[in-house]
Amino acid sequence: MVTANPLRNASPPRSLHIALWVLQSALGVALIAAGAWKLSLPFDQATAMFPWAADVPALYTVTSILDIAGGLGVILPSLTRVAPRTTVFAALGVVLLMLSAVVFYLLRGEPSETVPNLVLASAGGIVAWGRWRGAPIRAQLPVPTKWTSPLPDAAPPAEMRLYQLPTGTYRTRAALAVAGGAVTEQRAFAATAVLIQHPKGDVLIDAGFGAGAEAHIDALPSFRRAPHELADTASTQLSAAGYDRKRLLGVLLTHSHWDHVSGLDSLDVPIWMTAAERKYAAQSKSDPVFETVSRGHEIEEYPFDGPSYLGFPSSYDFYGDGSVVIVPAAGHTTGSVIIFVTVPSGQRYAFIGDLTWQLDGITDRLEKPLMMRMLADSDAKQVRQDMERVMALQDHLHVVPAHDMRGYQGIPLLKPSTVDAR
After folding, report:
1. Nearest-angstrom CA–CA distance, 259 and 254
2. CA distances, 255 to each of 51, 242, 335 (Å)
3. How many CB atoms lie within 10 A of CB 305?
4. 341 within 8 A of 222, measured Cβ to Cβ
5. Weakly modelled stretches of the chain, pLDDT under 70
6. Which pLDDT score, from 0 to 100, does residue 49 have?
7. What is the 3-state secondary structure (H, E, C) of 276-327?
8. According to the model, what pLDDT value does residue 120 have?
9. Burial 5-16 (b: 16+ CB within 10 A, else e)
10. Model's pTM, two decimal places?
11. Please, are residues 136 and 91 in contact by the beta-carbon 8 Å criterion?
12. What was the pLDDT predicted at 179?
């Protein structure tokens, strides 16, 4: 179950949101009213009040229309939460418009006329700063209908265990992680493998960073490289825990991007993936890491030949007992999957890969930023649909986005004192 988490990033003070709303509303209404009033004036009255209008009547009309557009831009995107970052650009446009008016009046030798423009420019600058860094407004997905049907049967064996193997982190800006994230906020993206111990054989969910992670990062386009910190690989952690490698059936990939597969370079086990993801990886131009680390590995493809599962159209029951069920989620990549795990205590997990990078995506109904959706997702519409499915389930299970360390809370670390090394 996803609940309020003390590690979640603090929200801006409510008082700041309220103050910005008041200022936005006042600025927007003032601009709309001024523009509409100027357009409604008979031209002889307009020239009497604004002598310059007689010299450049087109400028008078254009600036009146821009006043209205700026006012609408300052209010509507934030109010409707449709592309709310447009508020920032509208406010900056107001600043530019008003400062241009100041220069215009100064050139005409009318400095006293600049006061209203300077006030409006100041208000626009405050709104732009506030909605960019101080208290951004986030575009949210619709509230999904909660899942009310009975949960699917699952019979995890009593010996089944779940462990996390954190292999490092890399840093990115919150503004690149979730829609409306702050530019100034840094987030640590997890690269964590998860070990499922099961009497029928064990499996890792993803492989995290590998021994050759530095070389793997260097193989990426420069815009995909990020500051990072490496920890022990999954292979090293298995050895340190005294784990019996003969039990490991392989690595079950959520998808084939480098930060999920790098650790395959030191794991001599099969790779479990869909045929669609295998094809995606083979055709990838900007991420050659999978093709490098998968050489020599046996590839196990599996079909989605099972029934619908928790709102997803088909499934694959890995062990046949409902404890590990995989469903297609072909939006981030064309063969991405979500892995549902049920442990003996009855706790259910959803390992959602990169459906969303951070828990905010589920708890606050936030997509990736538009630019990142365009760069990183194969099918943004499918991602949105699958996010809504997971959001509908969040009262019933623990959601684990691959790159949010908060999602791994409660999953024990792999240690010699805890692992079943049979």
Report:
1. 11
2. 66, 28, 7
3. 9
4. no
5. 1-12, 417-422
6. 92
7. HHHHHHHHCCCCCHHHHHCCCCCEEECCCCECCECCECCEEECCCCCCEEEE
8. 97
9. eeeeeeeeeeee
10. 0.76
11. no
12. 81
**Residue 110 C-beta-side C-alpha neighbours within 13 Å:** 12
Structure tokens at 186: 């840094």
Q: Note the pLDDT tens digit of each residue in 42-87.
A: 999 999 999 999 999 999 999 999 999 999 999 998 887 777 889 9
In this structure, are strands 348-353 and 398-401 parallel, antiparallel, or unpaired? parallel
Q: Which amino acid is at 259?
A: D
Residue 5 is predicted with a pLDDT of: 37
- φ and ψ at 359, to 5 degrees? -60, -30
Q: What are phi and psi of 83, to 5 degrees?
A: 50, 60
